[in-house]
Amino acid sequence: MKQLALLVLSVCTVAISSCRKDLGTKCKSYTRVTVSNLIGTEEFHLDSTYTNAAGEAYHAYLLKYYVSHMALVNENGERVELYAHELIDQSVPSSLELGDVEIPDGHYTALEFNLGVDSLHNHSGDQAGDLDPMYGMIWTWNTGYIFFKHEGYFTSSTSGTEQPLIYHYGTDRALAPVSLPLNLHVDNNSSVIQLQFDLNKLYSNPNTVAFTGNNNHQSISTQDIPWINALRANFPNAFSANAFVFLSE
Amino acid sequence: MKKIIVAFIFIVPLLFVACNKCEDDAPAATPYSLVIPEGLPPMNIPSNNPLTVEGVALGKRLFYDPILSANNTQSCASCHIQETGFSETTQYSTGIDGIEGNRNAMPLINLGWQTKFFWDGGANGLESQVIGPITNPIEMHETLANVVAKLNADSEYPDLFKAAFGSAEVTSQNIMRAIAQFERTLISGNSKYDQYMRGEVFFTSQELNGKAIFEDMDKGDCVHCHSMGSTFSDFEFRNTGLDSISADEGRYRITLNQGDVGRFKTPSLRNVELTAPYMHDGRFQTLLECVQHYNTGFHYSANLDPNLYFAVKGRMTQQEMEDVVAFLKTLTDMEFVNNPAFH
């Protein structure tokens, strides 16, 4: 009877700890993504002054963006989704540390996600979690999420005066798929994926986005569309990723 | 041995079920039985927000509570007044900072049959619509984060949210859902028109004539957009020739399609006698002015609705226009504007 009880106990344990997504028998590897906003190789800070590729001094008092459907892709092209929708807010340190996720053992060669909110979720404010409209990343008069928000000041290259910068990037056409090469081999061990976002690269690679005369874009008029197209092309180049594996216990 | 394994196959799922039940200790809210009047089609209610007695009651309380505005002075009902079909008699509404808007407050009638809200259709759904007026700087000028904090700190609201949604934590999602639930109950379906269609009353000869002109493609041709039988709107976006050059770009602001410049949502005509002034900018004071506009007053532009483009100016006589107005007045539903369940 005791043996049976033990057996039962172990059966239960296996049942409980088995992989939630049923993706394999060995399911004991965990990973998590940490996000760093950068200027070149330096850590980005709100209210610090930087210089963009166009030579304009600028700072941001607000920097927030959505990454959605972040997934690891293995060497066979199979995707393991890590997170559905995550709001990265430079002023909220916990938003830069995405949670632990159990992943199947294997060799992962890419990290993929969208900068922005996919069209299935972009047309309703009736949502919770990081898509809660409370976070101020939604247009309330025209239902849809602000994918990327940079507000601050810059020095105009023509007048030399400090002027406000308001960049509210969004609408379905703005969704930017990002795919980053990665070399992550996990076999029963934990890992961390460092995702880096270089704000200066967003405004320079490959399209140089100067702020002077171009400092108020809220994705609400046809005049915003060339700016959306330029940033959408730049986003994939502004991100990079590295993976670190901890030795198994 | 086999038996025991079999037993466990049953017991293990039971354990999970039991656990799920423990977490959900709040009694489920009571389903709300929505009565759809004869003649109106079935309402399409989102499966994630079914109407409940507690949810509708909470939504009503929120609708009338100025706590939703930044300085606690204005509620939804400040500009959406039941006696006038949940609209306002002023051309524009004035927000908490004394700033006047630029569009006429829309009546709130039979919203459950509509899919896009505001004059330009910018809100995709009744739930999403809720946060527009709350956060608009020229309306209630409040942040959702503040509303959520105020309601969580209130002595009564957390219990009401728990009764309606199972959780005492007030969230913006449940605020939206509660107000949308209440708004879906604002159904008008007992006007003289409805009673006539059910064979309960007679129309006067003028009302009958007005109805015929309303439906006649060569006369009123109102029915093209103000669909008959139920909602009295197709809820499409149309340029009705109010101006050759539109001061308000209307639907264009949402879609950025040139063809949408000056297009606005076709409003329902239910209780239209009570919802003056008329049009998106409240430019007309009387129903006769509206009918005159469609008879002779409309302006040509590239975006003018084809139904009007091909309509002959002056196709209705003065008497015929007055008959149409008499018919429109049969859409007044005093049971709706006096319904104690709505206030």
List keywords for this structure.
heterodimer, A: about 250 residues, mainly beta, 9-stranded mixed β-sheet, about 45% strand, globular, disordered N terminus, B: about 350 residues, mainly alpha, Cytochrome Bc1 Complex, Chain D, domain 2, 2 domains, two-stranded antiparallel sheet, two-stranded antiparallel ribbon, 14 helices, 4 strands, about 0% strand
Helix percent of chain B reads: 25-40%
**Rg for CA atoms of chain B:** 24 Å
Total domain count of chain B = 2
Number of helices of chain B: 14
> How far apart are the first and last residues' alpha carbons of chain A, in Å?
34 Å
Indicate the overall shape of chain B. globular
Describe the protein in words.
The complex is a heterodimer of chains A (249) and B (343). With 249 residues, chain A is mainly beta. Chain A has one domain (23-245). Chain A has three helices and 14 strands. Chain A has helices at residues 2-17, 199-202, 225-238, and strands at 29-39, 42-43, 50-51, 57-74, 79-89, 101-103, 106-115, 138-139, 144-155, 162-170, 176-186, 191-198, 216-217, 239-245. In chain A, strands 3, 4, 5, 7, 8, 9, 10, 11 and 13 form a nine-stranded mixed beta sheet that branches. In chain A, strands 1, 2, 6, 12 and 14 form a five-stranded mixed beta sheet that branches. Chain A starts with a helix and ends with a strand. The N and C termini of chain B lie far apart (66 Å). In chain B, 37% of the residues lie in helices and 2% in strands. Chain B is mainly alpha-helical and 343 residues long. The model of chain B is unreliable at 1-23 (pLDDT under 50). Chain B has helices at 2-23, 53-63, 126-129, 131-135, 144-153, 157-165, 172-184, 192-197, 205-215, 252-255, 287-297, 306-309, 318-328, 334-338; strands spanning 116-117, 123-124, 237-238, 264-265. Chain B has a two-stranded antiparallel sheet with strand order 1-2. In chain B, strands 3-4 form a two-stranded antiparallel ribbon. Chain B folds into two domains: 53-187, Cytochrome c-like domain (Cytochrome Bc1 Complex, Chain D, domain 2); 192-338, Orthogonal Bundle (Cytochrome Bc1 Complex, Chain D, domain 2), CATH 1.10.760. Chain A binds chain B through residues 4, 8, 11-12, 15, 123-128, 132-136, 138, 140-143, 220-222, 225, and chain B through 1, 4, 8, 12, 15, 46, 48-49, 118, 120, 122-125, 127-128, 130-132, 134-136, 143-145, 148, 171-173, 176-177, 180, 253-254, 256.
